Each structure stands twice: as structure tokens, then as C-alpha cells.
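Researcher: Sequence recovery benchmark, item below. Answer with residues only.
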């Protein structure tokens, strides 16, 4: 059974960078779409970025384009989210998830069935 574990969150100043990782166990991520979502206090969970593992095709929320990069390792067991030029509005708990493979991958939680426990990101001076 597929399990996902996130790491890499923390406190960073505006303009700084963080690299989140999502490690899979119990299965490789072949044939999945993997998404990164975030949920800020009092707000709904929103999709940030996703990747089709076998094709490495990606999709991004408009507000993070040019700042965030999603990529995976050759073994197809880890997906990273490189976050640069972070802003206070990026503050949230970040979750990775695996789900149905559509092309392009879809940034909506409905299409994802396996979730990690989340890692908190705080952008503040």
C-alpha cells in the first residue's frame, strides 16, 4: 500500500527558499499523478503543483509559476517542491498526494486519494 511522507518545511524569511520532499513507500509512483497542496489557517486546501510521474509533465497554480518547481527522482519514489522567492501568503501546511493520472494533471484534491501528513511552512520576517 502506497504511503507518502513529507519533509522540509520550516520558518523562512520573505524572499527565501525551501525544498520540500515527498517520499513514497510501499510502491513506486509509476502511473500516478503526484500533487502538492497547501492549507492555510481558515482557508480551504488548494492545489499548488502536480506532476505526471512517467512523463514528467507538470502543472502549477498561477500564483507560484516562476517561483516553485516540482520534480522527481529517477527511481520515481521521491517528488520535490523547490520553493523560491517565498512570500508571506505562501504560509500554510503543505501536503503531497498521489492520485489519478490525467494529462495535464489536475490541481484539485478530488482526484487524489493518498495523502501525507503535511509539513508546515511559515514565511515571516
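Model:
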Amino acid at each position: 500500500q502506497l504511503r507518502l511522507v513529507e519533509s522540509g518545511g520550516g520558518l523562512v524569511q520573505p524572499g527565501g527558499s525551501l525544498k520540500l520532499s515527498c517520499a513514497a513507500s510501499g510502491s513506486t509512483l509509476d502511473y500516478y499523478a503526484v500533487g502538492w497542496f497547501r492549507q492555510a489557517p481558515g482557508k480551504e486546501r488548494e492545489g499548488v503543483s502536480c506532476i505526471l510521474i512517467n512523463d514528467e509533465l507538470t502543472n502549477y497554480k498561477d500564483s507560484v509559476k516562476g517561483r516553485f518547481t516540482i520534480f522527481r527522482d529517477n527511481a520515481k519514489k521521491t517528488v520535490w517542491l523547490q520553493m523560491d522567492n517565498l512570500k508571506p501568503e505562501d504560509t500554510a501546511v503543505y501536503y503531497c498526494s498521489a492520485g489519478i493520472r490525467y494529462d495535464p494533471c489536475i490541481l484539485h484534491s478530488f482526484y487524489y486519494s493518498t495523502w501525507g501528513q503535511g509539513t508546515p511552512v511559515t514565511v515571516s520576517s
